[in-house]
């Protein structure tokens, strides 16, 4: 690229760069990230004469590089390759001479090639400082102003930078930065800042040695002319190599036009003289880098420009990207239904066409405007012929060579609708006072779910399993036309045809005697008036016909008239004596809120912006007024229903009292609270307010400071120091007097100050006098129904007191909105009814009431927070630890909203008022202590803002809380079993003790119930089709009664479900131990998690399984040492005999080979040795006895020949030597004992 010296074109580029950045920010276009340039600067060791020895330095902005390049003028190049990668290198120039003057810039090497060059350094003649360069940089400002930073680069360090403006002799600003660049800031661009600026530098020690002035930079405030239109011919989507023409057309002739591409402002700035009131910008052969976002504007000879045109996106592509197609509500629809085919693609500004496979021509078209409005292709009343495969294509109205790619398709399946159900009402279709009607939707075959629709309210939809819907007529909202439909399990996405419509009739609200009497009196008065007119006409006719005297006619007319007046008075007296007075509240347009914002928190008066916000969603625009009459500005309302009024830096002309109004279609709101600006360097004056003080009660004093981030101080007259101080807490602070006594009476004021020292203080607020007066007790104040209402609802406030003949006043957010005078005719307690016929979004707020007689007022009633819902998105309500709770336990209900700083309310179905309130910055946790049966039921929550009419969110989805343990627990079974393979179907059967109960299926680890059913019998079947791995887990179920107090059962026994191809492995253990003992067996116990299985035991080394068992017990003996070794077991389900589980972990049984067996063997050896010793001893004894045996035998043969007997005495004598042995023939020894001798 050739290097040009800056000239008029560059000046104009810089001028409109400022214009572009400021207006682009106002359009909301984000700043684009530009490729960073390297930095080039000068260093010299002669600070007072730097041209004597110059070294140029080049620095990479964000990465290290291996090569750097220095360019001079158009041709000369010097490049340096350092020995290692670095951020910066130096190029030595030496003394500046005529030969080395010129334009310098540098580059660095990156992975994709040489970087973008640095800014141009101009070295002129020796003895002069280098000429500085001048450019602008935009910051993100508070709209609609624009903060501009002007950067001046002087190339040398320690210079003094001066900013000059054309027409001023002295510099408007100066800086002495530590580096080579100075930044001059212009805050909040205004027409006063317009002009031509230049920058010059000089050496600090030589103030007379100046550089040449930089190129001039002209700042222009844009937007003086209307914006032009930018169009592309033949189209804004073209292929590379094709030609394109962009036409910029404005309403004024003779202007110059400019075209810009936002992605690269400096390289894509084009300008042309106009042909009449338009200019053409041609692209002969498009390249891919020509794609981007373009806009244009025009300007006059003084460079005063127009607003920017709308951004036009140019696409340069070879092939169209894919579109995607989505069928709503489902790709499976019933005949006769409507289906929406939503087609979208990344290319914007082009139409789309819908095609069906098998047909050449497109079925429908959508232009670019319809796509921007989120419109879709609609197929109405589909039939079976509409089924097929659909796709959508880009629709171009010009010729191009861009290729069309394949498109995503959607297959539409059309099925016949199920027959329509019947809808009936019980006990009748007419509402009675205080009674509800049950709508019964019935069909002859089983269904999955019924749905009830209400024609008068599109968003109304109720669901029921049994087809019964209870409709109440609260505030007249039950009447209307209803119909129902259903869906079946076979096609859960297909709803049946709607039933025949059924109309419910009844009064619009509660039918009271007051209503009947009012209508009767109104009808009576009308009839009397008609009768009076008839009588007068009859008299006139008679007068003309019979010529009766005029006096008689006048007397008759007066008599009839008096009769009518007396009757009317009697009717009015009857009305005042019988009817209860209802005062309708004519709500004014909601008062807007006014506050201030600044981007200088320590000095807010340097740039102040006033904001006005309305609580009403129908606000069209805002008006800011000064001192009650001065018209400052009008701003349209944004999506947040607010508008900004920038004041800029405060001057003396800004001092005064400001307030704002909001404008709707036919009404103007009340003025906001007045914001008072009292000086150019002082904070806005705060406002102090409080409710009437009551002796002995707490009192809150509100100090409104208008700005966020301020400190607050409360002063009491007569005391020097503040009585209370509060830190930064939003735009207002609340001071609290814990117990109001006589000593607390007096005049109070408050002041605000900046957050950091030294403090900048505001003026004191207007004094507030606190005086304790004698008061009546506070009244009883409530709403007829719940204070949480939807838009359009009817609300009645009841304010009552036992005092007689009192007048009442209703307050909203501290301001009086309605009053009711005393009734002298009604004895007894006083009561007033304040009615809002149709609540709007802006009617929410804090309401209270007071009553009074001639001089004495009552204390304010307790406030009632009226919350109008359906303004913010609905929150999410969760129960921790879960929605099923045991009696006496605690449960926390967490309400999660979409915005911060909201107030939350917890609601229970059937309760008239919210149960709890919380004001938190994040989510709200509502704690239910020691729950019992009364706490069972449906809960929901809302969140709402407290500053703007209590605008609330939609109600959260209802969350059912069950307090269990009040009914017998059910049984939970799995069919066909607790283990199934992935992709199979399973049914969990929950058997209860009571019929017609609602059953709930729960899963451990999942907070919400999986499913609910209300079967007609004692059992619910929860069908789980095509189960997956994540369906594994522990399940249980409970059942509960549908009617209050919603008694629920205990949990069933837990049932573990496995979704797997292989059952989980069992466990194997040995009893009594893993060591065999002599003669003892070991029992191996195999246990698995599933019932109804058969176990098998396997022994290492054996091919076939050893034993089978149904209870898992196997007896092992160690005969011949065959029992020792490693064992494992597995099992199979009896329902699936071919599927075996994984084997258990191995278990080793040890015998003789183990240490215990060795101990047993040693014991046996010891015992055997003892046995041998005993046997040997016995053998010795026997041998000795055997030797004696022959002598006994010889003596036996000399006997008298009798049987072989041994005489005892002989044996004894033989065995006892030294004794005398008697002869056997001695007569004195006749007795003997015969002993048999064992062989």
UniProtKB/TrEMBL annotation:
<dbReference type="GO" id="GO:0002764">
    <property type="term" value="P:immune response-regulating signaling pathway"/>
</dbReference>
<feature type="transmembrane region" description="Helical">
    <location>
        <begin position="520"/>
        <end position="539"/>
    </location>
</feature>
<feature type="compositionally biased region" description="Polar residues">
    <location>
        <begin position="1219"/>
        <end position="1231"/>
    </location>
</feature>
<keyword id="KW-0325">Glycoprotein</keyword>
<feature type="domain" description="Ig-like">
    <location>
        <begin position="968"/>
        <end position="1037"/>
    </location>
</feature>
<dbReference type="Pfam" id="PF13895">
    <property type="entry name" value="Ig_2"/>
</dbReference>
<keyword id="KW-0472">Membrane</keyword>
<dbReference type="GO" id="GO:0016020">
    <property type="term" value="C:membrane"/>
</dbReference>
<keyword id="KW-0677">Repeat</keyword>
<dbReference type="InterPro" id="IPR036179">
    <property type="entry name" value="Ig-like_dom_sf"/>
</dbReference>
<feature type="domain" description="Ig-like">
    <location>
        <begin position="873"/>
        <end position="941"/>
    </location>
</feature>
<keyword id="KW-1015">Disulfide bond</keyword>
<dbReference type="InterPro" id="IPR003599">
    <property type="entry name" value="Ig_sub"/>
</dbReference>
<feature type="transmembrane region" description="Helical">
    <location>
        <begin position="551"/>
        <end position="579"/>
    </location>
</feature>
<feature type="domain" description="Ig-like">
    <location>
        <begin position="321"/>
        <end position="392"/>
    </location>
</feature>
<dbReference type="InterPro" id="IPR050412">
    <property type="entry name" value="Ig-like_Receptors_ImmuneReg"/>
</dbReference>
<dbReference type="InterPro" id="IPR003598">
    <property type="entry name" value="Ig_sub2"/>
</dbReference>
<keyword id="KW-0732">Signal</keyword>
<feature type="domain" description="Ig-like">
    <location>
        <begin position="419"/>
        <end position="484"/>
    </location>
</feature>
<keyword id="KW-0812">Transmembrane</keyword>
<dbReference type="InterPro" id="IPR007110">
    <property type="entry name" value="Ig-like_dom"/>
</dbReference>
<feature type="signal peptide">
    <location>
        <begin position="1"/>
        <end position="28"/>
    </location>
</feature>
<feature type="region of interest" description="Disordered">
    <location>
        <begin position="1211"/>
        <end position="1239"/>
    </location>
</feature>
<dbReference type="InterPro" id="IPR013783">
    <property type="entry name" value="Ig-like_fold"/>
</dbReference>
<feature type="domain" description="Ig-like">
    <location>
        <begin position="777"/>
        <end position="869"/>
    </location>
</feature>
<feature type="domain" description="Ig-like">
    <location>
        <begin position="30"/>
        <end position="106"/>
    </location>
</feature>
<keyword id="KW-1133">Transmembrane helix</keyword>
<keyword id="KW-0393">Immunoglobulin domain</keyword>
<protein>
    <submittedName>
        <fullName>Immunoglobulin superfamily member 1</fullName>
    </submittedName>
</protein>
């Amino acid at each position: 690229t050739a290097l040009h010296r800056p000239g008029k074109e560059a000046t104009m580029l810089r001028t409109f760069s400022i214009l572009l950045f400021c207006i682009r920010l106002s359009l909301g276009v984000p700043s684009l990230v530009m490729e960073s340039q390297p930095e080039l600067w000068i260093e010299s060791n002669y600070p007072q004469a730097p041209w004597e020895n110059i070294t140029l330095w080049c620095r990479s902005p964000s990465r290290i590089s291996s090569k750097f390049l220095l360019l001079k003028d158009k041709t000369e190049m010097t490049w340096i390759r350092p020995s290692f990668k670095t951020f910066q290198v130096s190029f030595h120039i030496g003394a500046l001479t005529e030969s080395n003057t010129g334009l310098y810039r540098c580059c660095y090497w990156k992975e994709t090639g040489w970087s973008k060059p640095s800014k141009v350094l101009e070295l002129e003649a020796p003895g002069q400082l280098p000429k500085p360069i001048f450019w602008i940089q935009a910051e993100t400002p508070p709209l609609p102003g624009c903060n501009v930073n002007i950067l001046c680069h002087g190339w040398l360090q320690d210079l003094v930078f001066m900013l000059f403006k054309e027409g001023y002799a002295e510099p408007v600003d100066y800086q002495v930065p530590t580096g080579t660049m100075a930044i001059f800031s212009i805050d909040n661009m205004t027409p006063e800042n317009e002009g031509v600026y230049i920058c010059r530098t000089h050496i600090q020690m030589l103030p007379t040695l100046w550089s040449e002035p930089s190129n001039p930079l002209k700042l222009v405030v844009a937007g003086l002319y209307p914006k032009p239109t930018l169009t592309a011919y033949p189209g804004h989507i073209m292929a590379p190599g094709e030609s394109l023409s962009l036409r910029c057309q404005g309403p004024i002739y003779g202007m110059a036009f400019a075209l810009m591409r936002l992605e690269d402002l400096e390289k894509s700035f084009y300008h042309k003289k106009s042909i009449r009131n338009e200019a053409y910008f041609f692209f002969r052969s498009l390249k891919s880098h020509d794609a981007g976002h373009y806009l244009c504007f025009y300007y006059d000879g003084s460079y005063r420009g127009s607003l920017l045109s709308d951004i036009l996106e140019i696409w340069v592509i070879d092939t169209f990207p894919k579109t995607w197609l989505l069928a709503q509500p489902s790709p499976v629809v019933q005949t006769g239904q409507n289906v929406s085919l939503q087609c979208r693609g990344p290319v914007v500004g082009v139409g789309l066409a819908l095609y069906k496979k098998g047909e050449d021509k497109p079925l429908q078209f959508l232009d670019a405007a319809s796509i921007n409005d989120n419109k879709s292709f609609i197929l109405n009343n589909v039939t079976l012929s509409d089924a097929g495969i659909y796709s959508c294509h880009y629709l171009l109205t010009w010729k191009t060579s861009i290729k069309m790619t394949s498109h995503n398709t959607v297959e539409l399946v059309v099925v016949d609708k199920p027959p329509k159900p019947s809808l009936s009402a019980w006990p009748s279709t007419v509402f009675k006072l205080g009674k509800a009607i049950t709508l019964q939707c019935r069909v002859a075959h089983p269904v999955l779910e019924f749905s009830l629709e209400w024609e008068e309210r599109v968003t109304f939809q109720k669901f029921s399993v049994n087809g019964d819907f209870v409709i109440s007529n609260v505030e007249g909202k039950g009447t209307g036309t209803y119909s129902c439909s259903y869906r079946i399990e076979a096609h859960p996405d297909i709803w049946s045809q709607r039933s025949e419509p059924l109309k419910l009739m009844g009064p619009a609200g509660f039918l009271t005697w007051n209503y009947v009497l009012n209508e009767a009196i109104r009808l009576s008065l009308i009839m009397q008036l008609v009768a009076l007119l008839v009588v007068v006409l009859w008299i006139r006719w008679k007068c003309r016909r019979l010529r009766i005297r005029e006096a008689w006619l006048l007397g008759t007319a007066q008599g009839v008239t008096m009769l009518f007046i007396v009757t009317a008075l009697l009717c009015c007296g009857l009305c005042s004596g019988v009817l209860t007075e209802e005062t309708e509240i004519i709500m004014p347009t909601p008062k807007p809120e006014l506050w201030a914002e600044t981007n200088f928190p320590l000095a807010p008066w340097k740039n102040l912006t006033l904001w006005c916000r309305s609580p009403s969603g129908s606000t069209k625009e805002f008006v800011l007024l000064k001192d009650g009459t001065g018209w400052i500005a009008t701003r349209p309302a944004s999506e947040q229903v607010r508008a900004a009024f920038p004041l800029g830096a405060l001057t003396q002309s800004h001092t005064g009292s400001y307030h704002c109004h909001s404008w709707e279609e036919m009404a103007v709101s009340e003025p906001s609270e007045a914001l008072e600006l009292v000086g150019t360097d002082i904070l806005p004056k705060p406002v102090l307010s409080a409710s009437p003080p009551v002796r002995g009660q707490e009192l809150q004093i509100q100090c409104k400071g208008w700005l966020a981030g301020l400190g607050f101080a409360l002063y009491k007259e007569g005391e020097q120091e503040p009585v209370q101080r509060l830190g930064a807490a939003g735009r207002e602070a609340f001071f609290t007097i814990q117990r109001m006594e006589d000593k607390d009476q007096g005049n109070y004021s408050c002041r605000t100050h900046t957050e950091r020292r030294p403090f900048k203080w505001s003026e004191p607020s207007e004094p507030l006098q606190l005086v304790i007066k004698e008061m009546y007790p506070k009244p009883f104040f409530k709403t007829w129904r719940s204070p949480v209402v939807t838009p359009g609802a009817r609300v009645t406030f009841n304010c009552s007191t036992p005092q007689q003949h009192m007048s009442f006043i209703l307050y909203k957010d501290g301001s009086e909105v309605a009053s009711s005078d005393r009734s002298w005719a009604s004895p007894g307690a006083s009561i007033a009814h304040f009615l809002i016929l149709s609540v709007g979004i802006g009617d929410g707020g804090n309401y209270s009431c007071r009553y009074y007689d001639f001089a004495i007022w009552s204390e304010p009633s307790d406030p009632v927070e009226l919350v109008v819902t359906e303004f913010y998105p609905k929150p999410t309500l969760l129960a921790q630890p879960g929605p099923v709770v045991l009696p006496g336990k605690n449960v926390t209900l967490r309400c999660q909203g979409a915005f911060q700083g909201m107030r939350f309310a917890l609601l229970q179905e059937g309760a008239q008022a919210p149960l709890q309130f919380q004001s938190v910055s994040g989510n709200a946790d509502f704690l239910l202590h020691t729950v019992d049966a009364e706490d069972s039921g449906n809960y929901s929550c809302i969140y709402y803002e407290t500053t703007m009419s209590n605008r609330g969110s939609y109600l959260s989805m209802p969350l059912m809380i069950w307090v269990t343990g009040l009914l017998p627990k059910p049984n939970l079974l799995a069919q066909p079993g607790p283990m199934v393979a992935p992709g199979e179907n399973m049914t969990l059967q929950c058997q209860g003790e009571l019929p017609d109960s609602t059953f709930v299926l729960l899963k451990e680890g999942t907070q919400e119930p999986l499913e609910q059913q209300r079967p007609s019998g004692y059992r619910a079947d929860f069908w789980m089709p095509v189960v997956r791995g994540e369906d594994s887990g522990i399940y249980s179920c409970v059942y509960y009664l549908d009617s209050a107090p919603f008694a629920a059962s205990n949990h069933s026994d837990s049932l573990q479900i496995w979704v797997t191809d292989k059952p989980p492995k069992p466990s194997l253990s040995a009893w009594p131990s893993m060591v065999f003992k002599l003669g003892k067996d070991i029992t191996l116990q195999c246990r698995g998690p599933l019932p109804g299985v058969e176990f098998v035991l396997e022994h290492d080394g054996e091919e076939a399984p050893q034993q089978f068992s149904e209870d898992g017990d196997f007896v092992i003996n160690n005969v011949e040492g065959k029992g020792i070794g490693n064992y494992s077991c597995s099992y199979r389900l009896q329902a699936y005999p071919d599927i075996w589980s994984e084997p258990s972990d191995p278990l080793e049984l040890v015998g003789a080979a183990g240490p215990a067996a060795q101990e047993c063997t040693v014991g046996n050896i010891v015992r055997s040795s003892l046995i041998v010793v005993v046997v040997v001893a016995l053998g010795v004894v026997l041998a000795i006895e055997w030797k004696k045996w022959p002598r006994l035998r010889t003596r036996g043969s000399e006997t008298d020949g009798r049987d072989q007997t041994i005489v005892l005495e002989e044996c004894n004598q033989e065995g006892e030597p030294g004794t005398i042995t008697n002869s056997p023939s001695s007569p004195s020894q006749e007795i003997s004992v015969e002993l048999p001798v064992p062989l």
